[in-house]
């Protein structure tokens, strides 16, 4: 451990020396750190004067935390270039090979660069924030409370780790500094959106939700660091010279994986799909456990806590039951009000949304959305119990018939999506990051086209034509 | 010691950059790896430093397998890369100290070793100047000093004297010879054939990833250019047509006062020839081996590999 820390520090120390001696980094940063707080202070005063005149009290209360957030963000965005060129810069200058030929391990090189990449901008951000707060203390305005200030500092820290860990991945994968700089927008744009969302939360006064944002961003950063370490290949760093996308080769590789060795569609179903399902058995088990957990937890939560918030007197329950019965009398018209193709498209869209969210977040957001859906099923069962219906009969008649197909389809799609995230953050020495992503996507499409779509189609037909009849049979008093 | 067997590397599942390289370099031996640009020299060296994973075959360096024990391999190898790879904002002293730390040298050892290398390569005066201010040759010497900093048993040197003035190049060659005598295993990749000829115990010529030739200089000359050629010089014109030459002698050219011939066993045949010349009152001035440079061997090998004719 001590040896590892020493090695990480060794790499970091050299980076610091390089940065401190480069006036092109130091001078603009010092100017930014020392001048920007004064500009921000002046702007804040103008804004306060303006809002005092027109009564913008609500905005005024949260203006200063917002300005602190922005002041913290600027140095991060500026110094991102240091992280972006951390590896690709060394490659371009030819200094990477002696370093890679040394006994330093991958994690030493990676974490050393990450440490400097995060620390330098954070120091500049904190310096800038401190100057601003000193200026603020001299004005006749309300100083932000310590709780809010700590939240903003933690957000700045989370932004720094997120941006730098993403920038270092770009630096490892890019072939030139130019390519890495062009890819910087893939880091800055999402964080700019995030900043806007955080601003909304600050102005709405939802400070506590900022905690969730901090945790989510740090979690994502952790996954990015893991991804970077997993795909840190010395060979790749040295060997890759061209990074143009070869669509033909990409398409061919994707199709080769998608098709496998199958000669016909029945052959594909006989050999390739079972093979994919076999490979997915671990993610399938995890997703299944999460589904059961989300369903049961949601059911218990509804049964236990909802009565405390909702009026469930016998009269109220009777009203609800009447309302439900009135609505369920339209069951016969289900196929006209919600045609099967529309239902099919809706469910298809949902599984694709799981994939897209999963791709953006190493599967975490996709899994959250999936658990939310499963929780909804459990919640409906809990609600049925609260108004006096049997949850089991409700499940058996209202969910199970089409759910056998629909839930199976969603669980399969989610497991394949989860597998993509897991593979991305798992070291695979023989494959590049792009190859891993391509192969995982081909696997997802295998499951999606081969199983999910047919299952969702059957589920939609059953939900529209069979489930309503079963509900009528199960609840004859409707 | 370096040992490889069928060492091969394929890129993008199509192009074999190195194809079936089998080599052995003993401690105290220098192997010169010769070949055109892109022949596979750098890829071979990178596999020997565990930077690239072989697609086929195996290699051991200082007794460690390059795939199974990459850390041990890297600890025991000193590499001089194609580009000097210096950090321009570090001074020569700082640079060597940094790599001394990387290789786990103690502070005193770092100081002593760095001072010795800087002094030896004539960089002591510039030790505190940033390496960005160094001349090309100084940069190359500092890079070489880096590869020697941890005193490794195996050295892989890519163009060790490129960009150096003749004095510096001589200095580097002397150091390489000293390292050989202290039982280091050395591979030099070079385009400088005279340097390879003067330094190498063994020479390997690589072409399109394959080793075409591998052996001592004499072995290579014999294999590529045939048996040794000798030239007899006479004081006046001499007609060799009257001579009854012993078996194993092939006349290659006669030119008035000069006679060239090849012999399989010069140690036996040449004294006989001298006797024949004197018995025929030939005014023999000198009898010497026709110099055959590595350059001829290399160019002929390359020409043969490319299927073109070679004119010396």
Quick summary:
Chain A has 478 residues and is an all-alpha fold. Helix content of chain A is 84%, strand content 0%. Chain A starts with a helix and ends with a helix.
The overall strand count of chain A is 0
C-alpha end-to-end distance of chain A = 69 Å
- Tally of alpha and pi helices of chain B: 10
What radius of gyration of chain A results from the CA coordinates? 28 Å
Structural Rg of chain B: 24 Å
Strand proportion of chain B, as a percent range, falls in 25-35%
Proportion of residues in β-strands of chain A:
under 5%
Named at the architecture level, the CATH assignment of the largest domain in chain B is 3-Layer(aba) Sandwich
Keywords for this entry:
heterodimer, A: 478 residues, mainly alpha, 2 domains, 21 helices, 84% helix, 0% strand, B: 312 residues, alpha/beta, Rossmann fold, six-stranded mixed sheet, four-stranded antiparallel sheet, 10 helices, 14 strands, 36% helix, elongated
Give structural notes.
The complex is a heterodimer of chains A (478) and B (312). Chain A folds into 2 domains: 2-239, no CATH class; 247-474, no CATH class. Chain A is 84% helix and 0% strand. Chain A has helices at 2-20, 23-54, 57-84, 88-93, 96-100, 106-137, 146-173, 177-183, 185-204, 207-230, 234-239, 247-259, 265-279, 281-309, 314-328, 334-337, 340-360, 364-386, 391-424, 433-465, 467-474. The longest helix of chain A is centred in the last third of the chain and has 34 residues, at 391-424. The model of chain B has no long low-confidence stretch (mean pLDDT 90). Chain B is 36% helix and 28% strand. In chain B, strand 4 (56-61) and strand 5 (64-65) form a beta hairpin. By secondary structure, chain B is of the alpha/beta class. Chain B has 10 helices and 14 strands. The two termini of chain B are 36 Å apart. Chain B has 2 domains: 2-222, Rossmann fold, CATH 3.40.50; 229-289.
């Amino acid at each position: 451990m001590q040896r590892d820390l020493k090695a990480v520090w060794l790499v970091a120390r050299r980076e610091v020396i390089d940065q401190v001696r480069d006036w092109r980094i130091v001078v603009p940063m010092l100017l930014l750190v020392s001048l920007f707080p004064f500009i921000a202070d002046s702007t804040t005063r103008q804004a306060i004067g303006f809002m005092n005149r027109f009564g913008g009290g609500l905005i005024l209360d949260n203006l200063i935390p917002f300005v602190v957030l922005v002041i913290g963000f600027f140095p991060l965005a500026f110094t991102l270039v240091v992280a972006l060129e951390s590896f690709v810069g060394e490659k371009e200058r030819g200094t990477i090979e002696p370093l890679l030929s040394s006994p330093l391990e991958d994690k030493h090189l990676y974490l050393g660069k990450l440490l400097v990449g995060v620390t330098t901008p954070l120091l500049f951000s904190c310096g800038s924030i401190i100057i601003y707060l000193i200026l603020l203390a001299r004005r006749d305005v309300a100083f932000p409370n310590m709780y809010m200030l700590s939240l903003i500092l933690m957000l700045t820290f989370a932004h720094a780790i997120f941006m730098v860990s993403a920038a270092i991945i770009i630096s490892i994968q890019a072939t030139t500094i130019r390519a890495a700089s062009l890819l910087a927008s893939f880091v800055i744009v999402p964080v700019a959106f995030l900043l806007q969302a955080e601003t909304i939360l600050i102005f709405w006064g939802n400070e506590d939700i900022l905690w969730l944002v901090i945790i989510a961003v740090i979690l994502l950063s952790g996954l990015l660091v893991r991804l970077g370490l997993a795909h840190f290949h010395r060979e790749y760093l040295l060997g890759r010279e061209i990074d143009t996308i070869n669509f033909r080769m990409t398409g061919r590789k994707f199709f080769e994986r998608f098709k496998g060795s199958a000669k016909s569609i029945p052959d594909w179903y006989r050999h390739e799909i079972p093979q994919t399902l076999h490979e997915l058995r671990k993610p399938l088990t995890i997703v299944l456990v999460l589904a059961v957990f989300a369903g049961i937890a949601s059911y218990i939560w509804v049964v236990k806590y909802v009565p405390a918030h909702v009026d469930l007197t016998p009269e109220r329950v009777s009203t609800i039951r009447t309302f439900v019965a009135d609505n369920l009398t339209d069951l016969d018209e289900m196929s006209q009000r919600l045609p099967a193709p529309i239902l099919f498209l809706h469910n298809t869209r949902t599984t694709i949304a799981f994939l897209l969210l999963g791709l953006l977040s190493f599967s975490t957001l996709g899994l959250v959305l999936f658990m939310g859906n499963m929780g909804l099923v459990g919640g409906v069962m809990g609600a049925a119990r609260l108004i006096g219906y049997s949850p089991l009969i409700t499940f058996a008649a209202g969910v199970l018939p089409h759910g056998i197909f629909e839930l199976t389809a969603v669980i399969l799609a989610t497991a394949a999506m989860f597998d993509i995230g897991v593979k991305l953050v798992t070291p695979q020495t023989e494959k590049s990051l792009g190859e891993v992503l391509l192969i995982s996507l081909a696997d997802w499409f295998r499951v999606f086209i081969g199983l999910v779509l047919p299952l969702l189609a059957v589920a939609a037909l059953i939900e529209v034509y069979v489930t309503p009849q079963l509900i009528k049979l199960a609840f004859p008093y409707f | 010691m370096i040992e490889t067997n069928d060492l091969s590397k394929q890129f993008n599942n199509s192009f074999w950059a190195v194809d079936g390289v089998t080599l052995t370099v003993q401690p105290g031996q220098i192997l010169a790896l010769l070949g055109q640009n892109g022949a596979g020299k750098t890829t071979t060296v990178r596999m020997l430093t565990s930077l690239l994973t072989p697609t086929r075959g195996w290699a051991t360096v200082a007794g460690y397998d390059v795939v199974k024990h990459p850390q041990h391999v890297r600890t025991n190898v000193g590499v001089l890369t194609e580009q000097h790879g210096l950090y321009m904002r570090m001074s020569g002293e700082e640079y060597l100290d940094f790599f001394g730390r990387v290789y786990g040298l103690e502070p005193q050892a770092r100081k002593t070793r760095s001072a010795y290398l800087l002094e030896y390569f004539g960089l002591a005066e510039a030790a505190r100047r940033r390496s960005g201010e160094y001349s090309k040759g100084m940069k190359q010497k500092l890079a070489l000093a880096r590869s020697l900093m941890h005193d490794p048993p195996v050295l892989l040197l890519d163009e060790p004297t490129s960009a150096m003035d003749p004095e510096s190049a001589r200095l580097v060659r002397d150091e390489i010879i000293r390292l050989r005598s202290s039982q280091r295993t050395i591979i030099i990749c070079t385009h400088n054939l005279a340097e390879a000829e003067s330094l190498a115990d063994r020479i390997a010529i690589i072409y399109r990833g394959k080793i075409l030739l591998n052996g001592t200089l004499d072995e290579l000359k014999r294999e590529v250019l045939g048996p040794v050629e000798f030239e007899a010089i006479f004081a006046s014109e001499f007609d060799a047509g009257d001579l009854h030459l012993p078996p194993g002698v092939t006349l290659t050219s006669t030119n008035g006062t000069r006679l060239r011939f090849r012999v399989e066993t010069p140690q036996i045949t040449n004294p006989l020839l001298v006797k024949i010349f004197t018995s025929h009152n030939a005014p023999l001035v000198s009898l010497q081996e026709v110099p055959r440079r590595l350059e001829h061997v290399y160019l002929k090998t390359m020409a043969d590999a490319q299927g073109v004719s070679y004119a010396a």
